[in-house]
Amino acid sequence: MLAALFRCSKPNTYLYEESQKGRQLTASERGWVEQYLLLAPRYARYEAHLKAAAEAGVRAAALEYGVAFERPEFITLAERLNGDVDPEQMARVATSLEARTRWLRRAAEAGSHRALEDLADLGDPWAQERVAPLAGLHWLRDAAERALAEGDPVRAWIWQYVALARGEDLTLSTLAARHDGGSNDGEFYDSDFGGPLYVDGDEGLALPELERNQHGEAQAKAQAILRA
């Protein structure tokens, strides 16, 4: 609580140090020095109280001290301590992927949609199933590709069936030639106009064949995800 009372940004020492070297300051620069002289002791009290709280085992203080004063050992301490702490911030400063995933899960369970999306992008099945009903085609394709890379073709088909239920198809190519520059920049390429072009879009996703019962499993899971 004492640290919160004194919380402030680190004051800039530059003009104060210049004045100590004998530099003649303008009126506005002297104002900045006066502001520094007011903030410097406040900032020192903020640091001292926050560090004391962190060393006393207050988890939120350990996290804040580690971030505000760039002391990673206090972030590690915050991971070990018990008590209330902001899980999203813990995820942002996590020292390992395992820790980041764990904190994102806690933040997502607490209602953070951003944490849920970040967790889904890391390939977490629990998060993916909650994001998928509202996710765009690009996300569904990425999720299917990730499932194929991990050797899980049934899961890749789940995302295909989610896409099909929404009128999309991950296996269709979206490759197209578009005008590069000029008045038609970005539009579908028209040879009557000519000029430079670029290729935009993705090749259709090559999904492996499944057994009939596997297709049924993928369809049922996709419907469950959409209902949820």
Q: Provide the residue-averaged pLDDT.
A: 90
Spell out the helices and strands N to C: HHHHHHHHHHHEEH
Main beta-sheet annotation? 2 strands, antiparallel
Number of strands: 2
The shape is: flat
End-to-end Cα distance, whole Å, is 42 Å
Helix content: 55-70%
Please give the radius of gyration in angstroms. Answer: 27 Å
Which stretches are low in confidence, meaning pLDDT under 50 for 5 or more residues running? none
Count of separate DSSP helical elements: 12
**Strands side by side in the biggest sheet:** 1-2
Give the structural class: mainly alpha
Beta strand %: under 5%
Question: What do you see in this structure?
Answer:
The protein has helices spanning 2-6, 14-20, 27-55, 59-68, 72-80, 87-92, 97-109, 113-121, 125-131, 137-149, 153-165, 212-227, and strands at residues 176-179, 197-200. Helices cover 60% and strands 4% of the residues. 22% of the residues are buried. It is mainly α and 228 residues long. The model has no long low-confidence stretch (mean pLDDT 90).
